Amino acid sequence: MTMLKDAPVYDVIIVGAGAAGLIAAGRASRGGGKVLLVERMRQPGRKLLITGKGRCNITHDAPESVYYKNTFPNGRFLKHAFNAFFTRDIIKILNERGVDTVTERGNRVFPASNRAQDVHLALTGWMGSKNIDLITQTRVSGLIIENDSVTGVRAESDRGDKNYYSRSVIICTGGKSYPATGSTGDGYLLAGQAGHTISTPRPALVPFVTHGDTAARLQGLGLKNINATAWINGKKGPVEFGELMFAHYGLSGPVILTLSRQVVQALDAGGSVEIGIDLKPALDEKKLDARLLRDLNDHGKKQAGNIFRLWLPSKLIPVFTDLTGIDAGKPCGQVTAGERRKILLLMKDFRFRVKGHAGFREAIITAGGVPVSEIFSKTMESKLLKNLYFAGEVIDLDANTGGFNLQIAFSTGYLAAQSALSGK
Fold this sequence. Notes:
This protein is α+β, with helices and mostly antiparallel strands. It folds into 2 domains: 9-201 and 369-422, FAD/NAD(P)-binding domain (3-Layer(bba) Sandwich), CATH 3.50.50.60; 207-358, no CATH class. The chain is built from 13 helices and 22 strands. It has a 6-stranded antiparallel barrel. The chain has a 5-stranded parallel sheet with strand order 8-3-2-12-21, sandwiched between helices. A 4-stranded mixed sheet has the order 1-11-10-9, covered by helices on one side. β9 (139-146) and β10 form a beta hairpin. It is elongated and about 85 Å long. The two termini are 23 Å apart. The model is unreliable at 1-7 (pLDDT under 50).
């Protein structure tokens, strides 16, 4: 990157060098724009390095209609952004820079190397340094506004405060999730200075904290092909099929993250939430009971603790024997119909009371932000202030897990930069 000496007039100032900011900077510089990219942290793209547990779930290989269904509160707002830049485009950029991709179960796209740093290097390389001044460890503290138009930003750093001027500004600061990566909510403050309202930021795609020590006893255990049901204020809510993980604090994994949007809303409203896990969703109660009875009869002399191995992962067995009150040393032939019923019900509805969530520190993304009703969907420009644009997580759009959210950042960043340049 070129060193910054003076304070020239830029075509575009991009605030935040995450996924949206990197794509925006690359698109603007490749379009001939003079770009200033301002990043609060020491290096750009830090959050990219931890996405997908360090593997980076780049995108979701599915039609736009699937994105609309998985994005809230208004996925169709993204139509023009997806028309400008979509899954094939980000994959092409990565492939051209030597990063092969693989599409895994559920249409989730990852680098073949399973290394998020390869994606990071490819995107920073694609962005390049031509026409771009990058300054890091610098916080944008305010917008410079003249005649109902943004004309620059005020920035703070250890080197002192400074004003930078431009024809347009794109806010790509992210939300409030993973604040250690630089997402501290600064974008909301900047949007507020421009007169925007902010839909209350909430943790999204976040694990649950549960009552009791059952989850802690099962820490590290992963379950596949289960159903998880959210019971909100005693009423059956959404159901998700897939994978779940137990942690020392409670529940995590893809199904939990997907349920978290409604669960967090319920908890914030003071509601009660329970999660019921169906360990055998392929079997209804009648078929499962028949299987339990057959196995118990076929192994009548075996101890009950051993027969559980036919039904459950070993880590679940002591928990199940405790919760059902069945003596693990009891012969299977002596298990009563009532005890068998307890096993059945626990397998079909293994309940956990939720007392909270892990908060922004563990949330993959932030729900809330600048309402889409205040942004032009064709350009990503503010409806309230000329030449101000938004991209990525700062917008009130959040999607289910699976690569949707990164693609939203890429697409909105690209369209915002393209639109900002069109007014040069």
